[in-house]
């Protein structure tokens, strides 16, 4: 069984962002990031984005076993069914997904418009990039774009 310490360990590792934008928006940007974020969090728009995230997770789960924590209730499930995993994403639950064989973790936080991939090895990173692209999303390095 996984625990909070394991999650905390991953949170301290390098991470990549799976996002609708190709890189992080600079703090001094003259654009409308916060207005666009609010728009994307509206029900219909957020549902479209959540479906893309669910598709990324389902496609990755074809290659790797997942241990999924539903963070709000601290409940773990090993390889939940595709219907269950999709429903948790659609219901906007905060999830921590441990990819044991890849020594990596993906987080999806309630009301976020991105997912975060922690500690990816090159093989997982390449696959995640291809899958994100297939869903119209981007994968960018937080250290390069920060």
How far apart lie the N and C ends?
34 Å
Proportion of beta-strand residues: 15-25%
Total strand count, please? Answer: 7
Q: Can you give the helix content as a percent range?
A: 40-55%
Instruction: Please tell me what the overall shape is.
Output: globular
How much is the radius of gyration in Å?
15 Å
Structural commentary:
The chain is of the alpha+beta class and 146 residues long. The chain has one domain (4-24, 34-145). Helices cover 42% and strands 22% of the residues. It has six helices and seven strands; from the N terminus they run αβααββαβββαβα. It has helices at 4-11, 33-40, 43-61, 82-90, 122-134, 142-145; strands spanning 15-19, 67-70, 75-78, 95-99, 104-108, 114-118, 138-141. A seven-stranded antiparallel β-sheet has the order 3-2-4-5-6-1-7. A hairpin with a 5-residue loop joins β5 (104-108) and β6 (114-118). α3 (43-61) runs antiparallel to α4 (82-90). The longest helix is centred in the middle third of the chain and has 19 residues, at 43-61. It is globular. The mean pLDDT is 92.
Characteristic key phrases:
146 residues, seven-stranded antiparallel sheet, 42% helix, single chain, alpha+beta
Give the topology, please.
Layout: H1 4-11, E1 15-19, H2 33-40, H3 43-61, E2 67-70, E3 75-78, H4 82-90, E4 95-99, E5 104-108, E6 114-118, H5 122-134, E7 138-141, H6 142-145
Antiparallel strand pairs: 1-6, 1-7, 2-3, 2-4, 4-5, 5-6
Helix pairs in contact: 3-4, 3-5
Would you summarize the structure shown here?
By secondary structure, this protein is an alpha+beta fold. The protein has helices at residues 4-11, 33-40, 43-61, 82-90, 122-134, 142-145; strands at 15-19, 67-70, 75-78, 95-99, 104-108, 114-118, 138-141. The protein has a seven-stranded antiparallel sheet with strand order 3-2-4-5-6-1-7.
């Amino acid at each position: 069984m996984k625990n909070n310490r394991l999650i905390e360990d991953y949170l301290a590792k390098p991470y990549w962002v799976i996002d609708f934008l190709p890189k992080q928006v600079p703090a001094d940007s003259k654009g409308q990031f916060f207005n666009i974020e609010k728009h994307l969090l509206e029900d219909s728009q957020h549902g479209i984005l959540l479906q893309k995230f669910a598709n990324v997770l389902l496609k990755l789960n074809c290659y790797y076993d997942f241990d999924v924590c539903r963070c709000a209730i601290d409940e773990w499930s090993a390889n939940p069914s595709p219907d269950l995993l999709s429903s948790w994403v659609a219901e906007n639950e905060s999830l921590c997904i441990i990819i044991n064989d890849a020594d990596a973790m993906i987080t999806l936080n309630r009301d976020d418009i991105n997912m975060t991939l922690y500690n990816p090895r090159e093989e997982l990173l390449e696959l995640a990039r291809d899958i994100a692209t297939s869903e119209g999303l981007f994968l960018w390095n937080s250290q390069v774009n920060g």
